[in-house]
Amino acid sequence: MEIAITPVRALRGDLQVPGDKSISHRAVMLGALAEGETEIENFLPGEDCLSTIQVVKSLGVEVHIEKDRVVVRGGGLNALQEPENVLDAGNSGTTMRLMAGILSGCPFFSVLTGDASLRRRPMQRVIKPLSAMGARITSRGGNAYAPMAITGGALCSTTYRSPVASAQVKSAVLLAGLFADGTTTVIEPARSRDHTERMLSYFGARIQVKDKQVSVWGRPKLQGCKVVVPGDISSAVFLLVACAVVPGADLTVRNVGINPTRSGALEVLKEMGANIIIFNERQVSGEPVADIRIRGSRLKGTTINRAIIPYLIDELPALAVAAALAEGETVVRDAAELRYKETDRITTVVKLLSQMGADIIEQEDGFIIRGGRALQGTECESFGDHRLAMAAAVAGLHARGITKIKSAECVNISFPAFFNTLNLLSVQ
Ligand SMILES: O=C(O)C1=C[C@@H](OP(=O)(O)O)[C@@H](O)[C@H](O)C1
Ligand SMILES: C=C(OP(=O)(O)O)C(=O)O
């Protein structure tokens, strides 16, 4: 599907974005491991989370889905059954890596695979600690890439010092730790998003968090419960950036997750001069939630580096567009992890924005953008990467002429209503 974006004169709205992708995945997985019924409200019916539902269904778990309401009927940690076929995680790194942790604890054989993008992403980062806990895992490329064949069961608890700040690695080990006797601990170089710890505790597991160290006690009795998923800040950020530089723009996004391990983009946008107000702060199912209002202003360049990178890694394509529209230089560094996402997001962001006329230079671990050049509408590739397609659309709203985005249907991965939402907001 090709989408054409025309420049926008004003943006106005008061809306919600769909449920958080990271939290939706975890609610289905923990629901599958819990006893009794888990009711998930505001679930993200995007392709990635539907892959997670498919995978847990193939393991014998009953799941009912009706729009954004999902009911999971789990039978406890020992109730998952050997799947009859290969498990397909589609485009979703979260599904593959977190399910690898769960399957490592299950005493049967399973194979996890995914689409061409996912089969190029590094899996050794989970295979190594899970094998050290006792899972037997073999995979393509000398245990580097999916497909991954797992024979699980009889795990030992561990203390794992992860070389990367990755919530997927941390979560894979913690989820495997549920199946082991004793306490499993993960120590990270920097704190990654903490939804797994929060939700494990919400379902009744014993969790201890000390700075960059998280421990889970093995063999808990997880209890099915109701989870209300907050709106996805990673989706909201595209709309916030779309409005940030438009004079007179006024947008309120309600019910957005503002977990501090996810909301670095709000800090950066404020630092760049965006007129953002966060209000109605509250707690929903163990996660902080708020409403966010942005009004158009002028942005200036900034530096985004190590301390904040884990808290905004998925927002960097959107922030790169903000930087191209800002006055002055923006430097993004210490973000080499971007190279291991659905695409190599350093290369694809640089390709997209240079094609549109921005002054952007690729670095090994990020990019440098000298903002303020007029953007030019063009025909661009999404490379099948949902966040790149949305970044292209937001840049297109601020470019001269028409921007055509190829394979734009990939927005269905995380934000199926993205283009409709942009239409609702745009005053042509
Ligand atoms: O745990 C999660 O839900 C996620 C963790 C991050 O990946 P890493 O763990 O590779 O940093 C993030 O980029 C991804 O979109 C979702
Ligand atoms: C990297 C992402 O997701 P995943 O790793 O789950 O594919 C993303 O949504 O930007």
TrEMBL record:
Pfam families: EPSP_synthase
Quaternary structure note: Monomer.
Swiss-Prot/TrEMBL catalytic activity: 3-phosphoshikimate + phosphoenolpyruvate = 5-O-(1-carboxyvinyl)-3-phosphoshikimate + phosphate
Record-listed phosphoenolpyruvate binding positions: K21, G93, R121, Q168, R345, R387
Gene name, Swiss-Prot/TrEMBL: aroA1
Name of the protein: 3-phosphoshikimate 1-carboxyvinyltransferase
Record-annotated active site: D314
Gene Ontology molecular function, alphabetical: 3-phosphoshikimate 1-carboxyvinyltransferase activity
Role according to the record: Catalyzes the transfer of the enolpyruvyl moiety of phosphoenolpyruvate (PEP) to the 5-hydroxyl of shikimate-3-phosphate (S3P) to produce enolpyruvyl shikimate-3-phosphate and inorganic phosphate.
Family designation: Belongs to the EPSP synthase family.
Gene3D superfamilies noted in UniProt: Enolpyruvate transferase domain
SUPFAM superfamilies hit by this protein: EPT/RTPC-like
Compartment(s) where it occurs, according to its Swiss-Prot or TrEMBL record: Cytoplasm
Principal location: cytoplasm
Organism: Sporotomaculum syntrophicum
Residues involved in 3-phosphoshikimate binding: K21, S22, R26, S166, Q168, D314, K341
Database matches in InterPro entries: Enolpyruvate_Tfrase_dom, Enolpyruvate_Tfrase_sf, EPSP_synthase, EPSP_synthase_CS, RNA3'P_cycl/enolpyr_Trfase_a/b
Leading EC class: transferase
GO CC annotations on file: cytoplasm
Biological processes, Gene Ontology terms: amino acid biosynthetic process; aromatic amino acid family biosynthetic process; chorismate biosynthetic process
EC number: 2.5.1.19
Domain Enolpyruvate transferase, chain residue ranges per copy: 6-422
Keywords in alphabetical order: Amino-acid biosynthesis, Aromatic amino acid biosynthesis, Cytoplasm, Transferase
